[in-house]
TrEMBL record:
Family of the protein in this entry: Belongs to the peptidase M14 family.
Top-rank taxon, per record: Bacteria
Domain Peptidase M14: 27-301
PROSITE patterns per UniProt: PEPTIDASE_M14
Keywords (A to Z) from UniProt: Hydrolase, Metal-binding, Zinc
Species of provenance: Alteromonas marina
Cofactor(s) this protein requires: Zn(2+)
GO molecular function, a single term: metallocarboxypeptidase activity
GO BP terms: proteolysis
Protein name: Peptidase
A Pfam family it matches: AstE_AspA_cat
Length: 301
């Protein structure tokens, strides 16, 4: 893998290198225009828009919002939908917004549903996996997290005090994972990473201690109607992990401090859409995220 333009190979970054990295970042799109303006217009009847925090980098520019039921029914199962933990993964955010607009109200009778469409708005604007501190929010879901994106989402979920049945976290795997983000990670940590094959298609990441394979299969079957499922590579793996069912791999989400490990929900999955496929379009990617959410909700309702 090529040397990254910041830092000295083999030496972890200090504050100077992190500052150099941050100085290279700039906004390429607008959270206000592409997320908030949409969100304010699409809240269905029976739901409220709750501001649960704001990012300290610019509290006015980066308020954080969740869509929550006006009232919670303790007799219903509860579900959490999160998007944009990695801000650059566009369909996670836009798919969550599309779900809110087109499908959320259809499930309100059966479930308590909380949707957080954009956990990392700075990352959304700058098209980044990390936050400005060169931290990956999706490796930062632990007590006293230094990543405000993760810490504020965990506080929201804790304050809601919902016993969650389902958590679906919306992500993408992109070609830039190999061209930018893995090289940056290797440079930041002073280690070497090999490139991995970028899978062409949709897949899910189950939770290793409790993969709930039939649940994962239900999500995959629904998404098949919208887009193609990623095949295993020649070693029977996707992004270096064993394929345990068609289009399904496992990570230990709590051990890795992933967003999907922040709750004790029985049914947990991380979606992974591949927007760089020759067969993908932004609409197709958003539709795949919505199909995955709906299939997950149908399974637990």
């Amino acid at each position: 893998m090529q040397n990254y333009p910041i830092g000295t190979p083999g030496e972890p970054w200090g504050e100077e290198e992190k500052a150099q990295w941050k100085a290279r970042q700039n906004a390429k799109r607008s959270y206000q225009e592409e997320v908030l303006k949409k969100l304010f217009k699409i809240i269905p009847e029976g739901f409220d828009l709750k501001q649960y925090g704001a990012l300290p980098y610019d509290t006015a520019r980066y308020p954080l919002y969740a869509v929550i039921p006006k009232s919670f029914d303790a007799n219903k199962p509860s579900a959490l939908v999160t998007g944009g933990v990695h801000g650059y993964e566009t369909s996670g955010v836009q798919g969550a917004l599309q779900f809110i607009e087109t499908k959320l109200s259809q499930y309100a009778e059966q479930l308590n549903i909380v949707v957080v469409p954009c956990v990392s708005p700075w990352g959304y604007e700058t098209i980044n996996r990390w936050n400005p501190l060169a931290l990956d929010p999706n490796r930062s879901f632990y007590k006293d997290s230094p990543a405000p994106e993760s810490a504020q989402l965990m506080k929201l979920v804790s304050d809601l005090a919902l016993p969650l049945t389902l958590h679906i976290d919306l992500h993408e795997t992109t070609d830039t994972d190999n061209s930018e983000f893995r090289p940056a990670l290797a440079a930041r940590d002073g280690v070497t990473h090999d490139n991995w094959n970028i899978p062409d298609g949709f897949y899910t990441v189950a939770n290793t201690p409790s993969p709930q394979i039939e649940f994962q299969k239900a999500v995959i079957e629904a998404v098949k109607k919208v887009t193609h499922i990623a095949p295993a590579d020649e070693n029977g793996k996707i992004i270096g992990a064993d394929v345990v069912s068609e289009g399904v791999i496992c990570y230990d989400k709590k051990a890795l401090y992933l967003c999907g490990g922040m709750t004790d929900a029985k049914y947990v999955t991380t979606t992974e859409v591949y927007p760089d496929s020759d067969n993908a379009t932004p609409k197709n990617c958003n539709d795949a995220q919505v199909a995955a959410i709906c299939a997950a909700l149908d399974y637990v309702k």
